[in-house]
């Protein structure tokens, strides 16, 4: 193999760290807790952006951009919000450096202290709602449906590439509505957009549900989430959509005149996904040979590797054939790379592209040229087969569709096989150590939820919206009090 990675069963955590670096997705930077996203990793993120951006625009949203810096007083206006983010905030106190008195380097210029300290954006609700105050006067100005692609800073103490870094990339939608119903409908609409993206593009089966009060976004009345299950049995929150009520409108005095001529506070939502989706993609599908990318998000969907020899005429004929295949495939919207590097053996190239998760590999040598065949290898199953050159573009196009479906089916089978109903506390303590999702009764109190977390590290990942599965009478696994619905517990990232 080009760059070996630790086996998952030997050390799943190390396997993940190895894979991120060796597949050229990202690396740690000189800035503590921050990462460099390398071109191949960023290409995957760009594919995600392109799909999501279209989905947002198809639902009526527009992109905008708001400042990176937020006045500290803004963050203080919504008490629950500031409490939720206070420990993670990076603060700008000065605006200039000066040469140090001893001549060795630079120091902060004490005369350049800011009149008001600035917070480096951990999330944008406050700066955006201060802006919306200038945009809204009448019901005719609503709804406002804005999204921004940006970076944010949350000063994490323990970091992990893509999963938890001090700075990361994301999108954050912020909408303003005339009625509570419109805002609640928006919250549900956007969590379903995320679920659609996760299932149909990332090939990750997710559970949609409400967060418990303990797990809600700071300042929200309700948080909807998509929860995914990784191969090690841990859950990953992959995207959230928040119903903010009128909390931020009241904090920033954003009012409008309704159709009856009366003044009302605006209703709000916010929603976002981040580069954490990259971590989900890796951990949901990767294997001991490297990444396994769903074709819809793979920067390179087909790689072609020529098996060359000493006969230059044959070598050139192989490359000409591959160039023709490439043209046919690109006409179908399929991305193709011909790996014509003559300094590397074919086996090394095979391993390298396996590591990078390219869905389909086409190999062709002199004998294939003579016989009118090619060898196709699919990354999801590692199966290889010989195919006629005639009609190969149609074969590959169908194969990519099949790989996309198969990757999802495999992940769904794993997820469904990892959901268990548990009815007693003793059983819960045993089962939670095995990983997976546990469907359990809970009495609805934050105190019980906190006790369960303290004793097992498990949290309520969501209260599923699929009521047919979960709504039933029972007793809480911990307190024994009455419960009307099962919720989803797991240990999470």
Key features?
single chain, 493 residues, alpha+beta, twelve-stranded mixed beta sheet, five-stranded mixed beta sheet, 26 strands
Question: Overview of this structure, please?
Answer:
There is one protein chain. The protein is of the alpha+beta class. It has 15 helices and 26 strands. The strands form six sheets. Strands 3, 9, 10, 11, 12, 13, 16, 22, 23, 24, 25 and 26 form a twelve-stranded mixed sheet that branches. A five-stranded mixed sheet has the order 18-17-19-20-21, with helices on both faces. The two termini are 30 Å apart. The model has no long low-confidence stretch (mean pLDDT 96).
User: What characteristic shape results from the CA principal axes?
Assistant: globular
- The assigned structural class equals alpha+beta
Number of strands: 26
Radius of gyration: 26 Å
State the separation between the terminal residues, measured CA to CA. Answer: 30 Å
- List unreliable stretches of 5+ residues: none
* Helix amount: 25-40%
Largest sheet: 12 strands, mixed
Strand fraction: 25-35%
Mean pLDDT across all residues, rounded?
A: 96
Oligomer: single chain
Question: What is the number of helices?
Answer: 15
């Amino acid at each position: 193999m080009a760059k070996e990675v630790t086996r998952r069963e030997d050390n799943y955590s190390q396997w993940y760290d190895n894979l991120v670096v060796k597949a050229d997705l990202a690396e740690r930077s000189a800035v503590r807790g921050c990462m460099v996203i390398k071109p191949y990793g960023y290409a995957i993120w760009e594919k995600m952006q392109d799909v999501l951006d279209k989905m947002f625009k198809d639902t009526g949203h527009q992109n905008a951009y708001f400042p990176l810096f937020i006045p500290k007083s803004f963050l203080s206006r919504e008490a629950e919000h500031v409490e939720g983010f206070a420990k993670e905030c990076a603060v700008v106190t000065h605006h200039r450096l000066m040469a140090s008195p001893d001549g060795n380097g630079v120091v902060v210029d004490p005369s350049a202290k800011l009149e008001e300290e600035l917070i480096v954006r951990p999330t944008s609700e406050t700066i955006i709602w201060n802006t919306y105050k200038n945009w809204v006067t009448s019901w005719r100005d609503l709804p406002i449906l804005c999204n921004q692609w940006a970076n944010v800073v949350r000063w994490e103490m323990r970091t992990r590439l893509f999963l938890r870094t001090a700075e990361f990339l994301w999108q954050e939608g912020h909408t303003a509505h005339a009625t509570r119903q419109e805002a609640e409908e928006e919250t549900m609409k956007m969590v379903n957009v995320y679920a659609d993206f996760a299932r149909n593009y990332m090939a990750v089966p997710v559970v949609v549900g409400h967060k418990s009060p303990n797990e809600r976004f700071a300042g929200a009345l309700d948080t909807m989430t998509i929860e995914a299950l990784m191969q090690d049995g841990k859950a990953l929150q992959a995207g959230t959509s928040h119903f903010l009520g009128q909390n931020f409108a009241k904090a920033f005095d954003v009012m409008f005149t309704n159709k009856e001529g009366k003044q009302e506070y605006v209703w709000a939502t916010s929603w976002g996904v981040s580069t954490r989706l990259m971590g989900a993609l890796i951990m949901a599908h990767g294997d001991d040979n490297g990444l396994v990318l769903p074709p819809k998000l793979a920067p390179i969907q087909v790689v072609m590797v020529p098996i060359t020899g000493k006969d230059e005429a044959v070598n050139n004929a192989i490359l000409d054939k591959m160039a023709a295949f490439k043209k046919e495939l690109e006409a179908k919207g399929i991305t193709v790379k011909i790996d014509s590097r003559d300094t590397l053996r074919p086996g090394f190239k095979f391993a390298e592209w396996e590591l990078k998760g390219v869905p389909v590999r086409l190999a062709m040598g002199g004998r294939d040229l003579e016989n009118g065949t090619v060898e196709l290898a699919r990354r999801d199953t590692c199966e290889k087969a010989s195919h006629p050159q005639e009609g190969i573009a149609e074969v590959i196009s169908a194969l990519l569709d099949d790989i996309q479906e198969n990757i999802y089916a495999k992940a769904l089978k794993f997820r469904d096989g990892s959901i268990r109903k548990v009815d007693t506390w003793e059983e819960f303590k045993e089962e939670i150590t095995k990983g997976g999702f546990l469907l359990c009764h809970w009495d609805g109190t934050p105190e019980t939820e906190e006790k369960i977390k303290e004793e097992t590290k498990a949290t309520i990942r969501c209260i599923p919206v699929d009521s047919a599965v979960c709504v039933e009478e029972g007793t809480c696994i911990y307190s024994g009090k009455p419960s009307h619905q099962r919720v989803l517990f797991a240990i999470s990232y």
